[in-house]
Amino acid sequence: MDLRFDEADEAFRREVACWLATALTGEFAELVDAGGPGREHEHLQARKAWERRLGRDGWIGLGWPEADGGRGLSWERQVIFHEECARAGAPGRVGHIGEQLLGPTLLMFGTAEQKARFLPGILDGTRLWCQGYSEPGAGSDLAAVRTRAELRGGEWHVDGQKVWTSLATEADWCFVLARTEPGSLRHRGLSCLLVPMDQPGVDVRPIVQLTGTSEFNEVFFDDARAARDDVVGAPGEGWKVAMGTLAVERGVSTFGQQMGFAREFERVLAAARATGAADDPVLAERLLDSWMQLQVLRYTAVMTLGAPAGSTPGTEANVAKLMWAPWHRRLGELAVDVLGAAGTVAAGPGVDELTPAQRLHLFTRADTIYGGSDEVQRTVIAQRMLGLPRGPA
């Protein structure tokens, strides 16, 4: 896909930039560059208010069909929005899981009643979601899900554990992949349930990370309830729904991620120039290599835009994950290395006493694990793309 912007697109860019310049002032001025990787704890209440401001002014659901409350904008204009948000330092989103994952999933598989009930809260920024897929024994191997749900008395009764659940402490709802057919194995017998978080039987426990923050959480379901009709797709079609979610997970939102990466690289480059590290031949080569790989990441993101919603995912997402995760981890290492010995010393033991470079370095250690580990990505690519035989179990 050759991403080009015409004059109308550039006029839209000016509209977005103007809105951001006005909105990121006053009560939201403190949010510039806040809430990035390893910094989800920053200004949380203000970022929730920012979510509502986005919804009020029509900046959520840009690519959703107009019939479902969106604006029906092209991929190009969605990309422009992400570019300008990154350029303006717009804060990390707290509603992205609803907008980028659950919303598109409902657009593909949800009933008319489900869309009418759940989409408006996402669009106006008032209802937050988390994703209940990974488990202690089913992280990269999603088909090994053991959380179970049984339909009794007109309700689903959910029991099990999820892990690495982003923003579960703030979410109003969770879309949970659970095994609803007793005795089923692997991809069969799974269902995607919409489970309210504010109820007895849901216990959220934050996981403290290397950065000292807790973006990720464990979620325990002990006879938690979901309404009979709050199943996305038919019962037993959970694997199909989950694959649909993963297919859209790395669409335009991934391009926004690339814009964030570019901004991080620019900071590392500026630090290298300020400290003189850019004059070191070895560090200069690492900076050049990082920049070149960033261009490849951007090109890869552009090439994946425009895939039909709900189409069966191939290995493109696996290749992309295997490219950006180790790159981002190396960028975190480089961010500290260009600072020299001073980069290894924190100002103090508190969460807020890490420098941005140190926080980036620590947080990105997990990049090659969450969202499917590098080892699993290589296995998927080897088997599905190259047709190589399965290794020994």
TrEMBL record:
Residues 9-125 form the Acyl-CoA dehydrogenase/oxidase N-terminal domain. Belongs to the acyl-CoA dehydrogenase family. It holds the Pfam family Acyl-CoA_dh_1. Residues 236-386 form the Acyl-CoA dehydrogenase/oxidase C-terminal domain. Keywords: FAD, Flavoprotein, Oxidoreductase. InterPro entries: Acyl-CoA_Oxase/DH_mid-dom, Acyl-CoA_Oxase/DH_mid-dom_sf, AcylCo_DH-like_C, AcylCo_DH/oxidase_C, AcylCoA_DH/ox_N, AcylCoA_DH/ox_N_sf, AcylCoA_DH/oxidase_NM_dom_sf, Mycobact_Acyl-CoA_DH. Its cofactor is FAD. This is Acyl-CoA dehydrogenase family protein. It comes from the Bacteria. Residues 130-223 form the Acyl-CoA oxidase/dehydrogenase middle domain.
